[in-house]
Amino acid sequence: MLAPVSVCLLASCAASRFLPDEQRVESYAPFGKRQVDSEYAETVAAETSASEVVQAESLAEDLQPNPALISEPETEPSSSEDIVPILFASEVVEFAVKGDSLTLADLENFALESNPTLAQAAASVDRSQGNWLQVGLYPNPTMGYQASEVGNEGHFGQQGVYFEQEFVTAGKLGLSRHAANHAWEKERFALQAQQQRVLTSVRISFYKTLIAREAVELSEKLLETSDRGLKATEAMLAAKQASQVDLLQSRIERNNARVLLRQAQNRLQAAWQRLTSFVGRDDLDQSQLVGNVKPDLKELDGSEILAAMLLESPQLGAAQQEVARARAAIERAQVEPTPNVLAQVGTQYDTSTNYTVANVQIGFALPIFNCNQGNIQMAQAELISAEWELERIRLDLKNRLAPVLENHQNARVELTQYSESILPDAKSSLDLVTQGYQQGQFGFLRFLTAQRTYFQTNLDYLKSQQKWWTASIQIEGMLLNGGLETP
Questions:
Q1: Strands 355-364 and 158-167, how do they pair?
Q2: 150 pLDDT band (50/70/90 cuts)?
Q3: Taking phi first (over 0 means left), then psi (-120 to 50 degrees means alpha), and beta for anything else, what does residue 158 get?
Q4: pLDDT for residue 83
Q5: What is the dihedral of CA 42, 43, 47, 53, to 10 degrees?
Q6: Quick check: 321 and 189 in contact, CB under 8 A?
Q7: Based on the number of CB atoms within 10 Å of its own CB, is 140 exposed (0-12), middle (13-18) or buried (19 or more)?
Q8: pLDDT on residue 441
Q9: Which of 456, 475, 451 is nearest to 418 (CA)?
Q10: Largest alpha-carbon pair distance within the chain?
Q11: 204 and 476 in contact (C-beta within 8 Å)?
Q12: What's the CATH code, domain 15-136+171-328+378-476?
């Protein structure tokens, strides 16, 4: 959880006399200097294992089609075994990076600098800090001119000045500042929560973009394979080794691959646009984005996560400060009936007698009719509401955590099955069908079906990765999301 940040933009020249040094802060600029969680900076740009790369290269080499046959469809093919499209493995994807790399840590820092909701949340902290300062200030004295008996017996009467001061009793200023301090702390927690919302949104969008880019690369390879297959089918049809149905089916597969590619490209564009909107920068290059989408499939303890969330959630912290503020507001309302004392002292020169005279007045309100009953009742009702709001947030966190944990556990099971059995089985099935097709044991439609199954399995694997990352980031972000919602 990020450390609390307070921001001060008080315009009063006397502010420094009332704030301790450690509470004076600089403005909104520190967002540019804020450091992000180191564990996220360390998880990016990890390389795929060498064994997986070798496996994928071997697969592509084994299934490489005959270039002469595909480039010259009018030439009669020697046999169906030469018509084998290029295939792929989604778990092995390397990105070409142009220029400097763009990591998750970079994007987080950009977001902390540029996201407008953080400046709004910081302004709310400033406002509460200013209120804390103001409610504890002592009333200013009053100075004035006074005259009496002017014109009496043709004289100017008594001329002079007076000073008036209200004396605040019953510790009202301290109690007001105590309540305002809890309101200030509440806004600090709100700022922490908004920072976490922004970071969660950036992280989810980051992995969505990486995975969408993988899906584009897979779709491009499928389209390339479908194009080669269509050309090969046309050549076989010309050589009377394939039927018109085979040609139509191959053409359908190619057109479906085009649709899938366009959909993948649209998803990538949308994911990148959302990422840059949370970051607040339009000058970034998507090709520089680097990161590792391979998850760490460790099992999570739901009870431990819930306990930690109830202990560290800034939402709960803000709610607890609101409860404390409501209690302080009751104390403040209860002492309001104690009257403040208004004292006045003055001096006058009597022009008729040439004497200097003084006068003193002391007064206070009598709490007979108005004893602040209504405000006390409202403060008590606010406390009851704040206490129930605290309980509501606790239950809401527990409620929202349940489906996220379910998604995480389901994604973990899916990814484990894909890695250990489904992807290897899909590859083995495709290898066997390809071998049988080359030997004339299986028809062309059977081969297309196996190829489509393998491709869809890889796409489903990417979807499970996305589900795992989204759930993991939501859990680590204490279910705070919505980096552009009004704080």
A1: unpaired
A2: confident
A3: beta
A4: 36
A5: 160
A6: yes
A7: exposed
A8: 81
A9: 456
A10: 138
A11: no
A12: 1.20.1600.10
